[in-house]
Amino acid sequence: MFAKACSHTDHPDGLLKQIKICNSMYYMQFPLKRDDGSIEVIQAWRAEHSHHKHPVKGGIRYAENVNEDEVAALASLMTYKCAIVNVPFGGGKGGIKINRNNYSDSELERITRRYTYELLKKNFIGPGVDVPAPDYGTSSREMAWILDTYNSMTDDILSSEACVTGKPVRQGGVRGRNEATGRGVAYGIVEACCSAEDMKKLGLERGVDGKRVVVQGLGNVGYHAALYLAEEGATLTGIAEYEGAIYSEKGLDLQAVVDHRRNTGSILGFPGATDIPRSSDALLLECDILIPAALEGQITRDNAPHIKAKIIGEAANGPVTADADAILLEMGVMIIPDVYLNAGGVTVSYFEWLKNLSHVRFGRMSKRFEQSSNERIIKAIVDATGITLPPEQISMLSRGADELDLVNSGLEETMITAYKEIREVAKEHNTDLRTAAFINAIDKVAVYYNDMGIFP
Ligand code: GLU
């Protein structure tokens, strides 16, 4: 995918090679004393793909299939992702080769703290160096352990909170980070559906209203993407999880499905829906928008020809293989690529990092001022026109923006601007959105080297 985009640029080969390679990789192995007293060796990695900007940024995943190549590839995706959404970071990624379900909470804590210690020892973590975040298998709890370990090992008093993002709000996290990736997916899809011209090519109406959506994976990203798309008027017709999938042409109530799964342990058997025992069959359902929000490699050359969706929104990282990508483009499917679409997480991580360095909650300085200016404007209108407004309406109209409002608005602005940039590049080069996104990213990273005159 990178090579395809390179052919649309005129950067020298050496520069493209420098942009492509992973700058540094730290592979570590350390012992874990398990709760039963036995010793196990844990394998872990941290990749820093590109230092064209500092810090490098990217999540840490806990998964059994983590390996060096995957961590390096995901780190490179972070470089391009940050460039596309104009987040001024290089790309990084970490991975620990464990199935988190096989470890107790205290074992997970020991693994996370030891991993942080190893990173610190080799200067692979720090507010201006490398800033981890949650990814597959990790959450705000692991980030709180990372911060605490970092704090206990350094005297970086002023900026230490910015050494990791995706933290709990009470530990310096920012409101809206947890749902940011899913919300960003929804903003990106809404923006893509805004173009009547693009929708016409797919035989669809403009807008997401009434579009049938199938989501694979009800984790943090899939759940929030589905939630916000439903709020925008889309109909959630299919949901896939490990245990199987469910389908209803009339639409599924997301919260009711989540409650049903909590009560019964499965999404199957949801009242009014049809069960699909083999989860992967849900990818082949008749729908307008398919959102793979689980792991990579879900749509391959084998199932791609049978996909019926008109739009694929890649909420997960790498859900469509390169072979499948070519087949789907040939079939006229619009793919909104991961490297753009799931960048909402790192975008709000950037806001969290800014908050930590500035030591002030977004909206703290402006909220009351905005509110009183709005009240003055409303009063002037009321005085001039004689219209009377109920007090609830006045307080709704005059409310100043708080942290969550500002984070969501910054995220929406970021996703919309980035989509417009990619669409422009796609038109200019007469290419698909993924290739356009990579061209856009490569050009932005190349600026760093070109401006130094290294590659004139
Ligand atoms: N793990 C997320 C991603 O792959 C978030 C990274 C971050 O916030 O730094 O984009």
Largest sheet: 7 strands, mixed
**What's the quaternary structure here?**
single chain
Average of per-residue pLDDT values: 96
- Looking at the structure, the CATH topology of the domain at 24-171 is Rossmann fold
- Write down the overall geometry: globular
SSE string, helix = H, strand = E?
Answer: HHEEEHEHEHHHEHEEHEEEHEHHHHHH
Structural class comes to alpha/beta
Given as residue ranges, the uncertain stretches (5+ residues, pLDDT < 50) are none
Query: From the coordinates shown, what is the CATH architecture of the domain at 24-171?
Result: 3-Layer(aba) Sandwich
**In DSSP terms, counting alpha (H) and pi (I) runs of 4 or more, how many helices?**
16
CATH class of the domain at 24-171: Alpha Beta
Short description:
The chain is of the alpha/beta class and 456 residues long. It has helices at 2-6, 13-20, 68-84, 105-121, 140-153, 180-192, 196-201, 220-231, 254-264, 322-330, 338-341, 344-358, 367-385, 391-398, 403-429, 433-451, and strands at residues 24-33, 39-48, 56-62, 90-96, 130-134, 212-216, 235-241, 244-247, 274-276, 289-292, 311-313, 334-336.
